[in-house]
Design a protein that fits this description.
two-stranded antiparallel sheet; ArsR family transcriptional regulator (chains A, B); elongated; 5 helices; homodimer; ArsR-like_HTH (chains A, B); 62% helix; 2 domains; Arc Repressor Mutant, subunit A
Chain lengths: 117, 117
Amino acid sequence: MQSAQLDATFSALADPTRRAVLAELASGARTVNELAKPFDISLPAFSRHLKVLEQAGLITRGRDRQFRPCTIAPEPLREATDWMQQYRKLWDERLDRLDAYLAQLQSPTSTEDRDDD
Amino acid sequence: MQSAQLDATFSALADPTRRAVLAELASGARTVNELAKPFDISLPAFSRHLKVLEQAGLITRGRDRQFRPCTIAPEPLREATDWMQQYRKLWDERLDRLDAYLAQLQSPTSTEDRDDD
């Protein structure tokens, strides 16, 4: 279940238009026209992006027939972030070790500063 | 550029087998056979998943012709987490407000405890 939700969430996020829409919705509800304005694509094409976001549960649409304002639905995004977060510590540690190793390579004389060897 | 990388990263993450591979690689390098073992899919199908991860830059393959061990490449994952992280604060605040609102709805008598109204 949760796996299918993660599939849908990551799949929806794999597009710059859809990511931009979510970024815009992070500051509040918007109508479709407001959301579509910055994009140089047809309204039907834009609506398909909204449909993907809606089917993934990342946005909800209001009931107003004419405007149906879009609102961000944070829960699936939080779940996806949690999934990534659980590995972040491991990745960070790995990068830290790599950084330390590269720093060591770049300053071969650093041991000369020490008196303890 | 960064947008294309995010497309590739999120697209690669939109599959339970590929997410499981990354989870396994978080604890160290593995050969393809080691990685494939828990999955009930053909080796060619599994190799296609590895190819997606490799092309997205999420794993690297060793030079050893026979084993070519897989290693996780943390940088793109860190970028994707950072992208999600920048909105997390907004989403968390929204969820907190929702929680507070729901708590208010569920305890209509809570104002009776106060003397200040």
